[in-house]
Specification:
Layout (H helix, E strand, L loop, with lengths): L2 E7 L4 E5 L6 E5 L6 E7 L8 E7 L25 H16 L7 E2 L13 E9 L4 E5 L25 H8 L10 E6 L4 E6 L6 H14 L2 E5 L7 E4 L6 E5 L4 E5 L9 H15 L6 E5 L7 H5 L4 E6 L2 H13 L5 E5 L18 E4 L10 H7 L3 E6 L2 H13 L2 E9 L9 E8 L1
Parallel strand pairs: 6-20, 10-11, 15-16, 15-18, 16-17, 18-19
Antiparallel strand pairs: 1-2, 1-4, 2-3, 4-5, 7-8, 7-9, 9-10, 11-12, 13-14, 19-21, 20-21
Helix pairs in contact: 1-8
Length: about 425
Amino acid sequence: MAKIRITDITHAGVGWGTDDSTLGVTVAPFSLPGDLIEACSPTNNTPHPTLAYTIVEPSQFRQSAPCSAFPKCSGCSFMHALPTWQIDFKEQMVKKMLGETAKNARWDQPLQGITEQYRRKARLRARWDPKSNTEFIGFKNRFGRFIADVEQCEVLAPPFNSLIQPLRDVIGKLDARASIPQLELAVGDNDAALILRHLSPLTTEDRETLRAFAIKSNIRLFLQSGGPDSVELLAATSTDPLFFTLPSFNLVLQFSPLDFIQAHGKLNDLLVSSAIDWLNPKSHEFILDLFCGLGNFSLPIAQRAAQVIGIEGSSAMTERASSNAALNGITNTTFFACDLEQPIAQHSWSHQKYDAILLDPPRSGANNIIPALCEISPSRMVYVSCNPVTFARDAILLNSFGYNLSRVRVADMFPHTEHVETVGLFERT
């Protein structure tokens, strides 16, 4: 059997190395740079065979995974790696993707927070298995077709980190257990909510069983039989709106369980602080916030700027942003619902003069709107990205319009996964 030193790793967590035998390049899932592995026979006939292996000498970056479900649970890719290595790896990955575009950029210290019990927003699968008479809840099984068999989740925020097995037990008792495919989890600073998706009607007994579980577990439980408009509250110990805070700005933002919020509360506060520090809004300036959501960046910006215009594709989210502004006594914001994948020239807000722009697009990026933003000609733009591939693509496009990337930093919004948040400051030359 050949011994192979792992020298590099893909963004998905697959290590690779070479040896002097006929095996050539070897890929080894869940290995880390520095691991010395002893490879067995190839498991397939691909050009870069995935091998069964044992670790002869562990990497200095390796740790014991804090979750017993790793690696079968696909929710995490790097639980076997030290958190300090994870963020360094993610930063290096972004640097490689940016290449020459970031050759003159300053790289600020990466943003990190807690790495366990941090995830306040998640969507879990659910499946009833009649053969084993068992309910499964969690993320997909990486080595199988269905759901990983887990009893708790180390990354979910309380109380859901310890409610996986109780949820399995209670859903397994329902008459409608075979028609429940999904659970949506949301944790605010004041309460936790669960949306249970069901494809067939629930009996009165099922509803009472779920209501009793929700009250006992001190969570809000919603039912969803169809689209977003079908969501109904079944049980709650409090009817006050869910909220999270931005401590650095003394702001409270209310949200519904279906709204998008950043998964890591502490990292969100750090990310917003960093982005606004770089944007540096001044008291006489007009700022445009694109993909503004419920006001996560807009409201902190408004504390320093003369006026903030926020744009979001969903009218429900712009209404939420407006109500959050009112809740916090902020009067210098205006929000518009607009599909930013479509041309914006027909909208009056696009013809105003803006001193600076902040954009936080979805994973698909902002290449469709960047030419129009550059016509507005702000002195600077801060781009917050959840996808380094589209961020690198859009950085090249911004550069072609005369906006140079001057500062970059990454944020570990999803510890133990391959996902990374990137913030970039682009300044007009």
